[in-house]
Design brief:
This protein is mostly beta strands. Helices cover 4% and strands 39% of the residues. It contains 1 helix and 4 strands. A 4-stranded antiparallel sheet has the order 1-2-3-4, with no helix packed on it. The radius of gyration is 17 Å and the shape is elongated.
């Protein structure tokens, strides 16, 4: 979903980025991250540092709640994630 909607680089390839998280309580948290958007990263081989073309940044934020077996008999996780992509990218549904 992130690949089509957010312009996220394939998870098989590394990109520059950072992530920070804060846990309000044992069950609630918030986290945010910023990652580079590198068009055509899929044609590179391995870590070709210096060859990637950084076209923008993908900024993601998530807030959620999670439980485990020490809190409840049926643990779960619910989160809300939002993103902004500063790079221009093709609409995959119009260019297929």
């Amino acid at each position: 979903m992130f690949y089509f909607n957010a312009g996220f680089t394939s998870p098989l390839f590394a990109v520059w980025g950072a992530n920070a998280a804060y846990q309000f309580s044992p069950t609630s948290y918030i986290q945010a991250g910023a990652f580079t958007v590198n068009p055509n990263t899929n044609v590179l081989s391995g870590y070709d540092f210096g060859y990637e073309r950084i076209a923008g940044a993908l900024v993601m934020t998530e807030i959620g709640t999670k439980t485990d077996y020490s809190i409840t008999a049926y643990p779960g996780r619910v989160s809300l994630t939002g993103f902004v992509n500063t790079a221009d990218h093709d609409d995959n549904f119009k260019t297929i």
